[in-house]
Write a structure and sequence with these properties.
Layout: E1 4-10, E2 14-15, E3 20-26, E4 31-35, E5 38-43, E6 57-61, E7 71-81, E8 84-91, H1 95-102, E9 108-122, E10 128-143, H2 170-180, H3 184-192, H4 197-208, H5 231-246, H6 264-274, H7 284-294, H8 297-316, E11 326-330, E12 336-341, E13 363-368, E14 371-380, H9 381-385, H10 389-415, H11 448-459, E15 473-478, H12 483-490, E16 508-511, E17 523-527, E18 535-540, E19 547-552, E20 558-571, E21 577-580
Parallel strand pairs: 5-10, 6-10, 11-18, 15-16
Antiparallel strand pairs: 1-9, 2-3, 3-8, 4-5, 6-7, 7-8, 9-10, 12-13, 14-20, 15-17, 17-21, 18-20, 19-20
Length: 583
């Protein structure tokens, strides 16, 4: 939509009884303005004026359009009369407004208009000019002071056409010509010929409307930058500064340095000040309480700090069994179906001039779905007022570690379901089953012999068409009770005899103490999830790990923090895992 421009004129006649009047709203006189390139003379030829809307336009208070109170009346008619544009208006029934217009306190009007196109030019003295090719009046306003000298409130009826029109005062002519950027000789000629003021304006407009002697080149400069005052950006900087106090090793970014070292009460004061709230005489308690309830920046800053610390704790907590699964994402909460594809049909020799035969892919399906898990915890108002950063650190560390613990327990429960046999798969059999070839017929203590048997079982796994898939064990998963024994079996030895070589040093040891609660002797071999499908866990797309939301507490006097985890897991194939019940 084109920018709204304005021009100011004085009022014309007015009848207080009917609240109606007439006003000259523009004479098209040149107006000095300034743009990005410097001073410019704006010319508004009356011939370029387009008809006003059929229903008229609003009469406003100083071009304000924010509230209904800004509407002072209605302009019912706009028409051109010679070198003037005259409007008929009616004021609203507001005695104070009517009285101020009637007694001459309010004398000037201004038009708001939109321009369809401009033509650039230059006056003889080098002043840049812009001339409207077409414009439309979209509103008229009552204003304190006018800019166009040719439109005044008429104290009497319009001059009779037969009455002699006096010549313009010499000072007014010189001012008009100087404002238009025309030479002094032009003004001297008008004064010498005793030209009336209105005719002087017309002569100036005509002179300015002449085409320039050379084409005018215009330059548009656009500045592109970042708004660092956006509420979420400012809250992120505050949150980072608080986090740096919790974690001195964190290097603050340049925008966040403005808040370095500020206490929570200092941040609350800054948020209130930016929101236009008075803070004079407020102590830390009042600052924090008011910032929690009347601004959004302060709770967002606390949430950013909590989120950063929570993610650190979430990543730092030992993952145990989680490293044996493949992480992925799900777009929604519907059952996530995974297809087990065969390696493809066997390639057959094609003889000369022979035909290619068709093959098929054999597939079987497993599925699981995401669910939502979460809790709401409270950060007390007293802790925030006291600037007790230890509460931030302890609370978020526990929440982050708790999310990792939940995920690991979820996976352990999945592996050990059905008395250790694992979840039931699509073929109606548990994960670890003799028919799947991935469960030891008889439990055995963790040793070179039992590890060798487990590795052989994985090597012999076949795809859905019966061809070997060469599943290579990459992980040894044990309960905490077998950790020492497993470390000895996997340790590297500088052997001098072939009989002393350790063939299992390539295995990565994964220990999860949650397995002890089910069996302290059962151990597992697993192929790398990057090469063989097996255990898979997923987060909702765009929200990996725990997500937090905050609000000023109602049940809790402080900030309520909601931690949400959209998580799901399942086995999509049995061929990458092996189980031995142990001795």
């Amino acid at each position: 939509m084109p920018d709204l421009l304005t021009r100011v004129q004085p009022l014309a006649t007015f009848d207080a009884d009917t609240r109606t009047g007439r006003a000259v709203i523009t004479t098209g006189a040149p107006v000095a303005r300034r743009d990005l390139s410097g001073p410019v003379l704006e010319i508004l030829p009356l011939d370029a004026m387009r008809p006003a809307p059929a229903g008229g336009v609003p009469l406003l208070d100083s071009h304000r359009r924010q509230t209904i109170a800004d509407i002072l009346g209605r302009v019912t008619e706009i028409r051109r009369e010679g070198d003037e544009v005259v409007a008929t208006f009616r004021l609203a029934d507001r005695p104070d407004l009517v009285g101020r217009v009637a007694d001459g306190t309010i004398t000037d009007v201004s038009i708001g208009y939109s321009v369809g196109a401009w033509r650039a030019g230059k006056a003889e003295d080098g002043t840049r000019t812009i001339t409207a090719q077409d414009f439309t009046i979209v509103e008229v306003s009552l204003v304190p002071l006018g800019a166009d000298p040719g439109a005044k409130l008429r104290e009497a009826p319009m001059t009779d056409l037969n009455t002699a029109v006096p010549s313009a005062p010499a000072d007014d002519v010189r001012a008009l010509v100087t404002l238009a950027g025309l030479p002094d000789a032009f003004a001297a000629d008008l004064i010498a010929r005793n030209v009336p003021l209105e005719d002087c304006r017309a002569a100036v407009r005509l002179e300015l409307g002449k085409p320039p002697s050379a084409p005018i080149q215009t330059e548009i400069r656009v500045a592109v930058g970042v708004d660092h005052d956006a509420p979420h950006a400012r809250a992120a900087r505050m949150g980072e500064a608080l986090y740096a106090r919790l974690n001195p090793a964190h290097a603050l970014t340049a925008p966040a340095r403005d808040y370095a070292g500020m206490t929570t009460a200092d941040l609350a004061r800054d948020c209130l000040t930016r929101s236009g709230m008075p803070v004079t005489g407020l102590g830390p308690a009042a600052l924090v309480t008011r910032a929690l309830h009347v601004t959004s920046d302060f709770p967002l800053a606390l949430a950013d700090t909590v989120g950063r610390t929570l993610r650190d704790a979430y990543r730092a907590t030992p993952s145990g069994v989680r490293q044996l699964g493949r992480q992925t994402t799900a777009r929604d909460f519907r059952a996530r179906a995974r297809l087990q594809m065969s390696d493809g049909p066997e390639l057959l020799k094609v003889s000369e001039a022979g035909e290619f035969t068709r093959g098929t892919l054999v597939e079987a399906g497993e599925s699981y779905r995401l669910d939502t898990y979460g809790r709401i915890i409270g950060l007390s108002r007293q802790a925030i007022i006291n600037d007790d950063l230890g509460v931030f650190a302890d609370l978020t560390r526990r929440v982050g570690a708790g999310a990792t613990t939940f995920e690991c327990q979820f996976l352990v429960d999945l592996i050990t379901a059905n008395a250790g046999a694992g979840p039931i798969l699509a073929d109606g059999k548990p994960l670890f089953h003799a028919d799947h070839g991935n469960r030891a017929a008889m439990g055995g203590v963790l040793s070179e012999a039992t590890l060798s048997a487990g590795r052989l079982a994985l090597r012999r796994q076949t795809d859905l068409t019966g061809r070997p898939i060469d599943a290579t064990p990459a992980f040894l998963l044990v309960p905490a009770a077998l950790e020492t024994m497993a470390e000895k079996l996997l340790s590297q030895i500088q052997a001098t005899r072939t009989s002393d070589v350790n063939p299992f040093t390539a295995l990565t040891l994964a220990v999860d103490p949650r397995l002890d609660d089910v069996s302290a002797t059962r151990w597992y071999l697993a192929a790398s999830p990057a090469t063989i499908d097996g255990l898979e866990y997923a987060y909702l797309e765009g929200a990996p790990g725990p997500q937090i939301e905050t609000r000023a507490g109602f049940d809790v006097d402080g900030v309520e923090i909601k931690v949400r985890l959209d998580f799901g897991a399942g086995f999509v194939d049995h061929r990458g895992w092996y189980c031995n019940e142990g001795a």
